[in-house]
Amino acid sequence: MSDKYDVIVIGAGPGGYVAAIKAAQLGLKTACVESWTSEDGKQQVLGGTCLNVGCIPSKALLEISHKFEEAGHGYAEQGIELSDLKINISKMMERKNGIVKQLTGGIAGLFKSNGVTSIHGHGKLLANRQVEVTDNEGNTKVYEAENVILASGSKPIEIPPAPFTEDYIVDSWGALEFDEVPKRLGVIGAGFIGLELGSVWARLGSEVTVLEAMDTFLPTVDQQLAKETLKQFKKQGLDIKLGARMTNSEIKRKLVYVDYEDGKEKQQLKFDKVIVAVGRRPYSENLLAADSGVNMDERGFIHVDDHCKTDVPGVWAIGDVVRGPMLAHKASEEGVMVAERIAGHKPQVNYDCIPSVIYTSPEVAWVGKTEEQLKSEGEAYKVGTFPFAANGRAMAADAAVGMVKIIADEKTDRILGFHVMGPQASEIVAQGVIAMEFGSSAEDLALTCFAHPTLSESVHEAALAVDGGAIHIANRRKKK
Question: Which residues are catalytically annotated?
Fold first, then answer.
């Protein structure tokens, strides 16, 4: 078989493997390079961070821990009585690993059925769209391509005050592998990942303290929802300290001593384990040869235009290694767009309609702009909210916490932002994404029939509330 391809993708995460499959479906001779190797060192592992040590395993643990917490604290009020409830950590991890193995194996099957050639090794872009692949033994081979898609992803950021260790100070990957529930768990960073992982172990019995350097909780989230979310987390026992900047850590007597400053004085806490979740950075080391022609910024992000083209014709970059939110679904959409553009089509990603989700309980999800953004931009807008406390289905599910919030343009009524905090927010937000993708007005949703009883009726009511017409809550009086 010739070593020249129409498309070579470097990276088999949710951006790379999707791009490879779509390119092959479009009739392009395609190969995908991935260096991830199984623990025994024998097999290539596809799926990248998301499937192996990110989105999927964390959601598996979130689901299991949520069921455990609900069984221990929520079932009795519903008439379900349990005794001697306990968690089997090894069994929980076994299930998580089984799900990961099934999904990563599924990608290998999709590659085979779509005719994608899988190449095992570390990929590096050379000049003239050549790709050098180094295998586990250090052997190199060079492949040629008409188009190269860089999809190398990202990795956790390590900070000087808390260098990673094997047993005590871990990144988000290590937090998925604990073999017992830590009695006291410290989480550095109150972002998506820190809150999700902190929630998992708090539900299973850890005393969790979250240290966040910023004074604002979830600054990218609409603050009406963020403030309510913070209240719920504190009710659940998460001790979230804002404005707390970590300065040092020391491991002694099998404990981690963490020093931090809160603006008033220096403080110290001790933990059995510490998770550092202060963000991620692009995985771009040894990805580009000096003469590749592709430009990166000082943070390691590859420079691309709105269609993910780099400065070199025929070389593209997608996902966490380029600008924009580090989200698996964003990477996948970019992968499809690039494959289509290579094939001669002209699609584009609507970056205004990419949803974000925090998979805690309650979940938080949103798309579009927040009130804070619109205020800073001087845009005139109107708001409709509806609480799940007034939703029959949410009450029946013992999940009547949170709200749906719709923000619309004051003059045109076009939906500008769609925000959900509460049960199944990750699913409900898709209704807002679809509405905004089609340029819907709040009235369009208000005139749509929603099934009863469903959580989604809260979307209907929030849309009605935008113009003061909600049925199942008292509306704010309109100004005369």
Answer: 452
